[in-house]
């Protein structure tokens, strides 16, 4: 036994520890949740970790994204590389793979190849439903986790033909949702969500079963809730039902992005049309955006130095940018 | 009347009589929510018809997307 894991091994057992050291976890997203989970997993001695993120480190990440430093932000380091640098210093024995890419239906299956567990640390529902489809197809457990404000929620998606999948639970892609950019977030709830997800991963890797249970906690008010969701498996679910078509994995539901030539702008079209309540969004975003102009068709505003025009059907034009990955990241941080 | 919401006593004003109104009073009407009423999950289409009564035990989880 390596001495560094002695206390953990006392708890999860020799077998559990040895499985841990042979296991591979894929982390989708290296923001706040990804940073917290990665650090715990690397300290716990996971065999291999795949770190996937499309973004680079910015100063406003440092409040809660524990792996990154002011130096990383000044150097515009991609999160996946900055994370690997820090994680390597914590535990040189873990095999790390950094992927600086946007996860989409073309690359997801290859990125999760050989994974024992997929850990959700992304910031939008479309990517979650894509990962859900891919995890179901390959029978890999997928641990949903998310947080906004002081509230966090988790649920293991077990891909065992019995428990519901994320698509069963959501029924549809949410039209709009609060995001950390629009509703804010405090660091402690990140730690709670990541702690629950990593515990679920430890249980799975030690050969324990997980219950299909939705679990939510508001760390500010202390409200805790838990719902047994076994009964929510939907036989007609497009992702896990009898005639499953995996709509997110086959690309049908995927958001399209095009650079508008000569205009330094990106046009974003959601795969399924939305019907956004723009006045309500303008109110919710009051602290995140400025220079707001609205009419019955669209909302125009400035957000992080970009002029953005958002239409009721969910389409958006982001000005002052020609990098589609960056544009997508901006869009998701607003619309969710 | 009062219900037990997520394990805690929660006072409801008299005009809240069904699940849809309860969600509205918590500003959750536009969110995707799982509602468990006395250990039974209520389907989304039944929120407006499902009465909420004094002493009911309600567990609510709403989905968020941040990370
Ligand atoms: Zn399903």
TrEMBL record, chain A:
> Is Secreted a UniProt keyword of this protein?
no
Gene Ontology CC terms: cytosol
Q: Gene3D superfamilies given for it? A: NAD(P)-binding Rossmann-like Domain
- The highest taxon in the source lineage is Bacteria
Q: Which CDD domains match?
A: ThiF_MoeB_HesA_family
Q: Which UniProt keywords apply?
A: Nucleotidyltransferase, Transferase
Pfam family, any one: ThiF
State the InterPro entries in the record.
Answer: ThiF/MoeB/HesA, ThiF_NAD_FAD-bd, Ubiquitin-activating_enz
Q: Which GO terms describe its molecular function?
A: nucleotidyltransferase activity; sulfotransferase activity; thiosulfate-cyanide sulfurtransferase activity; ubiquitin-like modifier activating enzyme activity
Q: Which residues form the THIF-type NAD/FAD binding fold domain?
A: 5-238
Annotated TM spans: none
Its family? Belongs to the HesA/MoeB/ThiF family.
- Please state what the protein is called: Adenylyltransferase and sulfurtransferase
Organism of origin: Terribacillus halophilus
Q: Tell me the lineage of the source organism.
A: Bacteria, Bacillati, Bacillota, Bacilli, Bacillales
TrEMBL record, chain B:
The family database entries (Gene3D superfamilies) matched by this protein are listed as: 3.10.20.30
A Pfam family matched in the record: ThiS
Which InterPro entries does the UniProt entry name for this protein?
Beta-grasp_dom_sf, Mopterin_synth/thiamin_S_b, Thi_S, ThiS/MoaD-like
| Matches recorded under NCBIfam families | thiS
State what protein this is by name. Answer: Sulfur carrier protein
Gene source species: Terribacillus halophilus
Q: What is the lineage of its organism?
A: Bacteria, Bacillati, Bacillota, Bacilli, Bacillales
């Amino acid at each position: 036994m390596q001495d560094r894991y002695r206390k953990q091994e006392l708890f999860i057992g020799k077998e559990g520890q040895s499985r841990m050291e042979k296991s591979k976890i894929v982390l989708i997203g290296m923001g706040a949740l990804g940073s917290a989970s990665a650090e715990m997993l690397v300290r716990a001695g996971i065999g291999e970790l795949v770190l996937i993120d499309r973004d680079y480190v910015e100063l406003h990440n440092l409040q809660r994204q524990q792996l990154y430093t002011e130096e990383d932000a000044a150097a515009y380091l991609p999160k996946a590389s900055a994370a690997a640098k820090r994680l390597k210093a914590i535990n040189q024995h873990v095999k790390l793979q950094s992927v600086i890419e946007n996860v989409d239906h073309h690359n997801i299956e290859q990125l999760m190849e050989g994974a024992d567990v997929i850990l959700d640390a992304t910031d939008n529902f479309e990517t979650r439903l894509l990962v859900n489809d891919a995890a179901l197809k390959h029978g890999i457990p997928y641990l949903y986790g998310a947080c906004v404000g002081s509230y966090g929620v988790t649920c293991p998606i077990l891909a065992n033909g019995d428990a519901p999948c994320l698509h069963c639970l959501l029924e549809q892609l949410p039209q709009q949702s609060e995001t950390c950019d629009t509703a804010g977030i405090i660091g402690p709830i990140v730690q709670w969500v990541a702690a629950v997800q990593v515990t679920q991963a430890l249980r799975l890797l030690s050969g324990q079963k997980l219950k299909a249970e939705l679990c939510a906690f508001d760390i500010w008010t202390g409200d805790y809730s838990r719902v047994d969701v076994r009964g929510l498996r939907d036989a007609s679910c497009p992702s896990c039902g009898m005639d499953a078509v995996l709509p997110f994995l086959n690309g049908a539901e995927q958001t399209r992005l095009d650079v508008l030539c000569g205009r330094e702008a990106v046009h974003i079209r959601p795969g399924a049309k939305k019907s956004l309540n723009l006045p309500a969004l303008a109110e919710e975003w009051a602290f995140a955006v400025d220079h707001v102009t609205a009419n019955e068709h669209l909302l125009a505003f400035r957000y992080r130095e970009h002029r953005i025009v958002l239409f009721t059907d969910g389409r958006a034009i982001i000005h002052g940018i020609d990098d589609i990955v960056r544009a997508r990241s901006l869009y998701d941080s607003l619309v969710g | 009347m009062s219900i037990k919401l997520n394990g805690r006593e929660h006072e409801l004003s008299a005009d809240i009589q069904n699940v849809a109104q309860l969600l509205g009073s918590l500003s959750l009407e536009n969110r995707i929510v799982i509602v468990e009423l006395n250990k039974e999950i209520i389907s989304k289409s039944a929120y407006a018809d499902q009465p909420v009564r004094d002493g009911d035990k309600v567990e609510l989880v709403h989905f968020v997307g941040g990370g």
